[in-house]
Automatic annotation (TrEMBL):
Ranges annotated as biased composition (Basic residues): 40-50
Stated name of the protein: Uncharacterized protein
Lineage: superkingdom: Eukaryota
InterPro entries: FAD/NAD-bd_sf (IPR036188)
One protein family per Pfam: NAD_binding_8
Region of interest (Disordered), residue spans: 28-52
Gene this protein is translated from: LOC125507925
Amino acid sequence: MPLFHPAPCARPAAARAASRFSGAVVAASGAGGARPPKAPPRRPRGKPRFSRQSAIKKSFQQEQVVFSTPVPADPTVAIIGGGASGLSCASALAARGVRAVVFDTGMHGLGGRMATRMVDDGRRLVFDHAAQFFTASDQRFQKLVDEWVEKGLAREWRGSIGELEAGGHFTAIPSSTPRYIGVRGMRPLADAMLPENDLIKVVRPSWISKLEPFNGLWRLFENEKPQGQYDAVVIAHNGCQL
């Protein structure tokens, strides 16, 4: 049964700003003689983590890059991220005769949130631990889903979908939109999105940590190791790591 857990609620920015402002007011009023109350202990900070978001900020937000050289007739495009968006982009470019190189961090395969794990302990168990189901609101995507259904890769899910709490309470989520699941997991759907085409190259596992403009091209690096030069770059990685 497809399940998903609700994402933790982030503290509103307005509340954070208000708490900081009120602390400043208390400190100012205490300067007149009244002793300000003790500030609550700060939460210990974890180890700093490098993320592709910081790389993007360092690469792009410090300057605006404008290329004066025209795009060549046979460009090569780097796509960072091998999930549904990146694979769709690579497929669309290949259909137009444009070469694409897909860089993905996946250790076990492509797909991004279309991730599947399998356990075989006498019976084969399939776990979709990111996206357990999907819907189709776009006619072009619905056409692709219909092809998956015809090939036996996907089917409509008619069972319950909802939230399962730690105590065992299950809350169903009603929906009038058809919901689909991968028959053998979600990853085979990702594989089906990438056509066998000489114009598409996949590099994984790979973590692009730096982008650098150079002579009208983009140079990509993974931990200071060059990963080629490209006419254009498409960022198709998920927002949590960008």
